[in-house]
Hints:
- There is one protein chain.
- It is built from 13 helices and eight strands.
- By secondary structure, it is α+β, with helices and mostly antiparallel strands.
- The protein has two domains: 29-131 and 285-425, Orthogonal Bundle (MetI-like fold); 157-276, no CATH class.
- The protein has a five-stranded antiparallel beta sheet with strand order 1-2-8-5-6, with no helix packed on it. It has a three-stranded mixed beta sheet with strand order 3-4-7, with no helix packed on it.
- β1 (157-161) and β2 (164-167) form a beta hairpin.
- The longest helix has 31 residues, at 57-87.
Amino acid sequence: MTGTRRSIAVLFLLPAFLLLGALVVYPIGYSLFRSFFDQSGDGFVGLDNYTELFTDDGILTAVKNNAIWVLLAPTVATALGLVFAVLTERIRWGTAFKLVVFMPMAISMLAAGIIFRLVYEQDPDRGIANAVWVGVHDTFAESSAFPKAHPGRESPLEAAGGGTFITREPVRAGKPVMLPLVGVAPDNMPDDAKPAAKPVAEQGRVSGTTWQDFTRGKGVGTLNGVDSSEFGYPGMRIEAVKDGEVVASAKAAADGSFTLPEEADGAQLRLPASNFREAYNGVDWLGPSLITPAIIGSYIWMWAGFAMVLIAAGLATVPRELLEAARVDGANEWQVFRRITVPLLAPVLGVVLVTLMINVLKVFDLVYIIAPGSSQDDANVLALELYRKGFAEDQPGIASAIAMFLLLLVVPVMIYNIRRLRREGGR
C-alpha cells in the first residue's frame, strides 16, 4: 500500500518480532512444555499437573476467589467510575475531584498494599477503618469502663447468668450495702474515678458503695472493706430486683456511692451485664471471612479513577443535543442517564469492564501484601498460587499448569475485546 518492499517492512518489524518472541511467545511455549513434566523436569507426567488443578484445595480456593474478583471488582469499579464521571460533569471543581480520584493510579500495587495493610489493622489506634467503625459504634452503644470486673473472695455478690451479678441476700433500708469488685487494672480505671466513699446509712433508703476492692502490696488492705487507696466505680448501674422485676435503679457517683429509694427495701441488688460489656474492637477486616472483600475494596480504590477517566472521555463525545432534546420532551435526569447516557456510553463501558476483567485475573501484589499469613490461604488467587507452587513449594510443573490455565481464562476475553474493537473500527 505504501510502495515499500516487503523485505524492508520485515526488516523494520524484526526488532518488535524478536522482543515479542523472547518476552511472550517463548515463555508461553516453555510453560506449556514444562506443565507436562514432574517436579524435576525429567519425568513426563502427561495431564497429571492439570488434574491437580481440580483436586488441590488451595487451587480450588484460588479459582473460587478469582471468580469473586472477576464478578465483583470490575463491576463495582466501572459503576463508580460512571457515577463519578457523570456527577462531576457539571460542577466547577469537577476537575479537582477527578484528579483526587485518579491519584491512586500513580501509586504502585506494592505501596497500595502496604497502605491498606495499615488501614485494615485490627487495633483502632492504628487502623483507620476500625477507628472510624469503632467511633460510629461507640456513638450508639458505648462500651463499659469495667469489662473485666467481677466479685472477689467472700463477696456479697454472686454470678446470676448472662454476665450479671446479684447480691446473695435482700437489702434493707437504713443498712449500708457493700458491693466490692476486683479485676480492673489500676491503669484502666476511669479518669473521673475518685477515692471510694465509705457507705453511710440513710433513713428510709438503701445506700451503699461499689468500688475496686484492691490495694497494691501483699497483705495490704481490708477484704470487702473500703480502704483509703481504693477507688469507686463511677457510672456503675445498680438495679433493685423483686420477683424478677426492676423496682428501682441508680448510677454510682465518682466515689462509687449510690442511693436507692424505699422501693428497694427487701430487694436484691443486681449489677447488669451492661456494666461489664467488653470494649468494641471493630471488625476483623484481615480475618478469613472478610479478607477477600477487603482486598477488593483496595483494588477498587485504585482503579475507580482509571474507569472514571475513560468514561469521562467517552462522555465528552456524547452529542449534547440528544440530552437536551430528551429534557425538553419531559425526561427527568434519571431517565436521561438510564435511557440515553448509558446506552451511548456502552462501548466505553465495555472497554473499561473487559480491561479490568483481564487485570483482576492477574491480581497478585495486593493479595500477597495485604493478606496476613493466617488469612492468605483464604484470600488465595491463581496468580498467588502460581507463585507459591513455583517458588515456595518448588513445584514448577504445577505452577506452569496454573499459568496455562490463567492464559486460557484470559484469551477468550482478549479475543472478545479485539473483535469488538475491529467492529467499531469498521463502522
